[in-house]
Amino acid sequence: MKQQPQLGTMIKGQMLDGFLLVRSAIQRTSSNGSKYLDMTLCDISGEVNAKMWDGLTAPPLPAQVIRVRGMMQEYNGRPQFRVDKMRPATEADDYDMTALTPCAPEPAGDMLDEILNRVDAFQDRQLKALVLRRLDDCGDKLSYYPAASKLHHAERSGLLHHTSTMLRAAAAICQVYPMLDADLLAAGVILHDLCKTTEMDADEIGMVTDYTAEGMLIGHLVQGVAELNRVGRELKVRSELLMMLEHMVLSHHDLPEYGSPKPPMFPEAEVLHVLDLLDARMFEMYRELQNAQPGGFTERIWSLNRKLYRRKETPAREEETRE
User: Fold this and answer.
1) Is the pLDDT of residue 319 over 80?
2) What is the pLDDT of residue 204?
3) Using an 8 Å Cβ cutoff, are 252 and 264 in contact?
């Protein structure tokens, strides 16, 4: 399908015939008794209030991709999109999900296969059984859950993205420090954020609507330890191995003010914390730098408490250096 205009750049009177995501939709009744749809539609550039004055059309479901035809208008000085026609998107439709919502750069299935292949290589059968059980507990949520609501890897399949890049970094660092238990570190990487799937409410588009009661009252670190303890006892995992995995999950934020009551207290736990912090910061930095001009600075990033500089020059590639 040809490229469609983005909601964030549309002007009054501009038409759109393409695909959008539904954040919310409800049927309302106007003052004259006629029914209409009041919706919030979005794409990667932002969201807009939308109205469809055909009272016979049922409201689409939240997180649904729809094909729409309509015009950008204004109401009380704010953009409002008038929908003339719409229908649910089908598998036969040619649309790009990455144009509608932030998505991980790789297919979810490929990232999950990478994680499962790493688990399959574990030498310790108890460790392998424990990690596979916890992955299975998460079910289909793994394919679309983000790793956060706003900050790092707040994207569709962001949890898999965060986990898979950390696994690659873990493999590399184990080459530099061969004294590390590579399987224990990889297990910690896979397990450390799995309870994000119960900490947040997210739909199949990867949009987080809110934190769950368990997420607000307990949090994914403590939930993760509780789930590990439950599964570990069911599988009769060795007590020391289970305790070390629980410590890795509990300590991966490092400091009490970030949720960890204990600091990392053995090398694999320390490396897990460092890799988690590194991967989160790299994601945030590169995301923010995309909005900066070469040779200029970003706005101050509150999560990092600093501005970032974007270099003017493009790094030379190896073949260019040889020339």
Assistant:
1) no
2) 83
3) yes
Domain count for the chain: 2
Q: What's the rounded Cα separation, in Å, for the pair 20 and 229?
A: 43
- Of 176, 170, 168, which Cα lies nearest the Cα of 252? 170
Name the amino acid, one letter, at 86: M
SS3 of residue 238 by DSSP: coil
Interval 161-212: pLDDT, tens: 999 999 999 999 999 999 999 999 999 999 999 999 999 999 888 888 889 9
4: CB partners within 8 A, 6+ apart = 16, 17, 18, 19, 99
With 0-12 / 13-18 / 19 or more C-beta atoms within 10 angstroms meaning exposed / middle / buried, residue 55 is: middle
- Nearest-angstrom CA–CA distance, 35 and 53: 7
Q: Tokens 């939308």 map to which residue?
A: 50
In a domain, 301, yes or no: no
What is the pLDDT averaged over residues 109-120?
A: 97
> What is the rounded distance in angstroms from the CA atom of residue 323 to the CA atom of residue 191?
46
Q: Which amino acid is at 229?
A: N
Residue type, 9: T
Q: What average pLDDT does range 104-114 have in this prediction?
A: 95
Boundaries of domain holding 217: 108-286
What's residue 322's pLDDT? 57
Average pLDDT over residues 282-307: 89
Q: How many residues does the chain have?
A: 323
Who wins on pLDDT, 121 or 153? 121
Residues 114 and 231 grouped into a single domain: yes
Domain of 245, CATH number, reads 1.10.3210
Torsion sign (Cα): 177, 178, 179, 182: positive
Cα angle 7, 302, 101 (rounded to 5 degrees) comes to 25
Mean pLDDT, the chain, whole residue set: 92
For residue 292, tell me if it sits in a domain.
Answer: no
What's the pTM?
0.84
Residue 299 · residue 282 · CB < 8 Å: no
Both 93 and 133 in a single domain?
no
Give the bridge partners for 110, in sequence order. none
